Amino acid sequence: MTRPLLIPLILMALAGLALWLFAPALAEQAAAINLDLRLAAPSSDRWLGTDQLGRDLAARVLAGAPWSLGVAAGSTAIALTLGTLAGLAAAELEGWPRRIILQIVTLVISFPGLVAAVAAVAILGQSGFSVLLVLGFLTWTLFARVIYAEASSVRSRDYVTAARLGGVSRARLLIRHVLPAIAPSLIAMMVFHFADMLVAASALSFLGVGAPLGAPAWGAIISESRPYVYQAPWMLLAPATALAGTVLGLNIYGDIIAKRLGLAGRPS
Amino acid sequence: MTGLHLKNLDIHAGKTAIVQDVALHVPKGQVLGLVGESGSGKSMTVMSIPHLLPSGCHITAGHIILDDQDLTLLTDKQMPPLRGAKIGVIFQDPFTSLNPVRRIGDLLAEVITRHQNLSPAQAKAAAIAALDEVGLPDAAAKARAYPHEMSGGQRQRVGIALALVNHPSLVIADEPTTALDPTVQVHILDLIAKRMEDAAAILVTHDLGAAAYLCTRIAVMYSGRIVEEAPVADLVRRPRHPYTAALLAAAPRLGRIGRPDSIPGQPPSPGARPQGCAFAPRCARAAPECTVQPPFTGTDHKVACHRPLQ
């Protein structure tokens, strides 16, 4: 990756590190109830205002970031790993193993996502970890399909056949010869998927699924703000801006990566 | 019995016969030229040796015997260890047959360590030695280079090093000079001749000039069968099969005035081959008996034709 592409990644990593370092302090402040300051407007003291219990919204949005971003990162990692393995396997194996993998992919794609996610989290229990698992296992098929298609075409390139004729083993062939050729689309897809998972995790916590009660997940804060939209619009604006800004930023970043790597960009 | 023997090899794609009754013998240290038009089955024939036929195609009869081992009996697990070790393949296009994101030295080391028990440092040294042996100047620097930093001729030298680094007993060269500049072609042919040591080699080509330059014997394929096989000089000067004669007449040559003679018509598709000799519909010498498949006969100069020339 060239330097302009790397800078946002470094900034994101630094921001993540800072959030992690200040997490205990932030959590304490995010939970501090002050009923004298209910629904206070943004001020120099409380930058983003307070909620219906007088809790500092800036602290809550920041404290909620690790949960929302963590769930998105975790589910993206699961989807990426499963999808890559399944896609590569389907491309390399011919006959019935390929048909079985592709049938499983079709089956999982046919699940109604939101309903399946709500049901699965209800079974697994209210926690970020179960949301992460459920989202990962419901969306790996998107990676599997793209990787299967790309690997199938890369696999028939001369240099892969040449390596095969050199006696290189199938696993090594896939990892050292096929995967590097797919890496650009994989990286771009990963960024877009991360943004989608952030939206999905927030949608679930808005519905009260996943985030433990009272936890400052972005979707949960948005949900809490509903009765106060006219009275205290900042209560909606703070988490909504954080969510929309992050998703927009990730999509722009993904488009830049895709353009740099010579790909078509985000499929709409 | 050393070298390579193909015995009555049949290859089918589904129910369609692609290659029929191919018999060849390549002794150690000799180069056999396999010539024919595109679609004549020459690539299919050689790719069946390392079990790399396109999906759907299978060897349905016959044997491939390399140094007393019947390769047709090997399973999918037993074959890969032989690829690159006993069988080396030189590719047609050096621009597409080297992975663009891997260093030359790594590509070689990968094939070396697959078949020889060497430490990474030893493999690296062996890779540099292999590059040196194919005549690349400053081999140590070339080992660190990526394919795009090299010229076509240099890349084909790397391709030859890759195919020969484990001293295979069979070398298959699939049109190794077609993608190269004419000035480089002779160097590459010389290098193949010099580096293949005592391996048996098959040169697949439609360049009769290259075949005549490098080979001991030439086999001509037409529509999935071998129609003529003879020592180079004999085949070029006294072709006996009308197809071989037509092929020789169709080759453009410097110093000849006028247009080369093209062969009228087209080879039949594998599913629609005529009864008997497949060349008969395009053959000026065709006779009623040509509707029966002619036997492949002769001792040193073999031909499959009812009415051969001379």
Annotation keywords:
heterodimer, A: about 270 residues, mainly alpha, 9 helices, about 75% helix, B: about 300 residues, alpha/beta, seven-stranded mixed sheet, four-stranded antiparallel sheet, 11 strands, about 30% helix, about 20% strand
In words, what does this structure look like?
Chain A has 268 residues and is mainly alpha-helical. Chain A has 9 helices and no strands. The longest helix of chain A has 37 residues, at 170-206. The mean pLDDT of chain A is 88. With 310 residues, chain B is an alpha/beta fold. Chain B is built from 9 helices and 11 strands. In chain B, the strands form 2 sheets. A 7-stranded mixed beta sheet of chain B has the order 6-7-8-3-9-10-11. In chain B, strands 2-1-4-5 form a 4-stranded antiparallel beta sheet. In chain B, strand 9 (217-222) and strand 10 (225-231) form a beta hairpin. In chain B, helix 2 (104-115) crosses helix 3. Chain B is globular and about 65 Å long. The relative contact order of chain B is 0.14. The model of chain B has no long low-confidence stretch (mean pLDDT 90). At the A-B interface, helix 6 and helix 7 of A face strand 6 and helix 2 of B.
Query: What is the SS-derived class of chain A?
Result: mainly alpha
Largest sheet of chain B: 7 strands, mixed
CA-based gyration radius of chain B:
20 Å
Q: Please count the beta strands of chain B (DSSP E, at least 2 residues each).
A: 11
The overall strand count of chain A is 0
Arithmetic mean of pLDDT of chain A:
88
Which of globular, elongated, flat, extended, rod-shaped describes the shape of chain A? elongated
Helix and strand pattern of chain B: EEEHEEEHHHHEHEHEEHHE
Q: Tell me the fraction of residues in β-strands of chain A, as a range.
A: under 5%
Global Rg of chain A: 22 Å
What is the mean predicted local confidence, pLDDT of chain B?
A: 90
Assembly state of the chains shown: heterodimer
